[in-house]
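Researcher: Re-running this chain for the archive, since the previous output was lost when a drive failed. Same request as before.
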Amino acid sequence: LNLLAGGRPGVAEPGEAFVTAVAAGDRLVLGTSEGRLVAVSHVDGRVVWQTRAGDEGARRLMAGEDFVVASFPEGTAVRVSAVRTEDGSAVWSRVFADVARMPQNATLSPDGVLLMTTPGQVLAKDLFEAGSQLTFETPVDVGTPFTGMVEPGHLTVWEGVLLAATDQGQFVRG
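Model: Regenerated structure tokens:
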């Protein structure tokens, strides 16, 4: 897109690059190397909203009808932040510093639930519910099946069921 490559005012700042992108309804949401999220209209290319959600570039960017979620490195920790798709306003943010509880994969369900896996847990946050607390944290009963399962396709929601590739890709569990 010439709009993005051209560095129109309000889109790309000097020294900043786009590192992730995801379609979100009638807009494209871009993550920058400086931790900004920028929503651009697919109709006319104008910037609809922008916000700073992290200090570094987003490692993962997901979007649904209601929310955009991004994960950002913060030193040895990971920050996961959610904003409203409509206007970019902050909904939820949490820093995970404990390696054993640090999300290594995530997916956003159509009903606004953010689901994350650690090596041995499933974590969830209903983004429609106020507050910073997770909706649930469920340990799995078989060790650390999610270890190494970090690609977006390793975790998805289908027909209301969380499906996860586990055990180095040997199984799909629901």
